[in-house]
Design a protein that fits this description.
By secondary structure, the protein is an alpha/beta fold. The chain has a single domain, classed as TIM Barrel (Alpha-Beta Barrel). It is built from 10 helices and 8 strands. Helix 3 links the parallel strand 3 and strand 4. The relative contact order is 0.15.
């Protein structure tokens, strides 16, 4: 699977256009701001997750808006383990999938005990850059996989088919990506390239 975090790069009509492109790919999930989910899911067939949840944008809200899951503890929306435990419990009750993000294997081990659906390992220093975690720090992915029971995804700096293929080779179940797609002048072509790396 590939989770594309729209962040705030694409909003309004641009977000809708990109979501429609993403909906053509079976293995793509888009992560949206909670307030954008309803608009996108009502006008496309894209599988949507929320970028985060909180008291206002809770699991019930995002589920009613059409989301199937949520990111938790993403670098843009960090939370404590105590809050993370509460959010995961709320999501399980609401039937919402969870992807808990972290930057280190140590934190991943702590999060594993909270039983999210996935753990995403994303070293902060590589986020938004051109050096992919799968090639720059493959040992971080393998060490995390060996340490936790939860399926592991990876993100940070993923830009090419080679980056994706390498992530799969070392055992990741999927990737998180943002700027490589949302800033692309030809996102459909880029999506074809990245999804080819999942095979």
């Amino acid at each position: 699977m590939i989770i594309i975090n729209f962040k705030a790069y694409k909003i309004g009509k641009k977000a809708l256009q990109l979501a429609r492109i993403c909906a053509r790919f079976k293995k793509i999930i888009i992560a949206l701001r909670p307030q954008d989910i309803g608009l996108i899911t009502s006008k496309t067939r894209a599988t949507a997750y929320s970028q985060y949840i909180n008291e206002k944008f809770n699991p019930s809200f995002i589920k009613k808006s059409g989301a199937k899951g949520t990111l938790l503890n993403h670098s843009n929306y960090p939370i404590t383990n105590k809050t993370l435990k509460k959010r995961i419990k709320q999501c399980k009750k609401a039937g919402i999938k969870t992807i808990a993000c972290c930057t280190t294997t140590k934190r991943a081990k702590q999060i594993d005990k909270l039983k999210p659906d996935y753990i995403a390992i994303e070293p902060k220093e590589l986020i938004g850059g051109k050096r992919a975690v799968s090639t720059a720090k493959p040992e971080l992915i393998t060490k995390t996989i060996q340490t936790v029971k939860t399926p592991v995804l990876c993100g940070a700096g993923i830009n090419t088919q080679k980056d994706v293929s390498q992530a799969m080779r070392v055992g990741a179940k999927g990737i998180l990506v943002s700027s490589a797609i949302v800033k692309s002048q030809k996102p459909e072509r880029k999506l074809k390239e990245l999804t080819a790396g999942l095979n």
